[in-house]
Amino acid sequence: MTEQIQKLTETAVKAIKDKKGRGISVIDMQGMDGVICQAFVICQGGSPSQISAIADNVEEVMRKELGEKPLKIVGMENCYWVAMDYVDIIVHIFLPEAHEFYDIESLWQDATVTEIPDEE
């Protein structure tokens, strides 16, 4: 993972952990053909309000620490699945049932997936 992508993903993971996001994984897609970004950061929130809090914190921490603003954020109206596009990385925040249903990790089986342990 390049230094820039590493910084982006680590900062997003930190912001997710700040709001007790769980099931965090990072999918490194650098060097793969036909991908829309270099990495996904995926996590779960236990409720729509927690998903909203995670998304707000990711946006704030990325802006304050890295000067990065998302190109687009979708899904905030219902907080079932929020996607935050930072061009090089996309942050996905799911309710558990949405995460299980869409299972986007399985779409990128050739990529390197790093699971981040949940904090107790």
What does this structure look like?
The radius of gyration is 13 Å and the shape is globular. The chain is α+β, with helices and mostly antiparallel strands and 120 residues long. The protein has helices at 3-18, 48-66, 96-102, and strands spanning 22-28, 39-44, 72-74, 81-85, 89-94, 112-115. The longest helix has 19 residues, at 48-66. It has 3 helices and 6 strands, in the order H-E-E-H-E-E-E-H-E. It has a 6-stranded mixed β-sheet with strand order 3-4-5-2-1-6. Helix content is 35%, strand content 26%. The mean pLDDT is 94. Strand 3 (72-74) and strand 4 form a beta hairpin.
Give descriptors for this structure:
120 residues, alpha+beta, 3 helices
The main sheet comes to:
6 strands, mixed
Q: Helix proportion of residues, in percent?
A: 25-40%
Strand content: 25-35%
In the predicted model, the low-confidence regions spanning at least 5 consecutive residues are: none
**C-alpha end-to-end distance:** 28 Å
| Overall body shape | globular
How large, in whole angstroms, is the Cα Rg?
13 Å
**What string, H for helix and E for strand, traces the elements in order?**
HEEHEEEHE
Task: Return the average pLDDT rounded to an integer.
Answer: 94
Helix-and-strand structural type: alpha+beta
Number of strands: 6
- How are strands sequenced across the largest beta sheet? 3-4-5-2-1-6
Total helices: the number is: 3
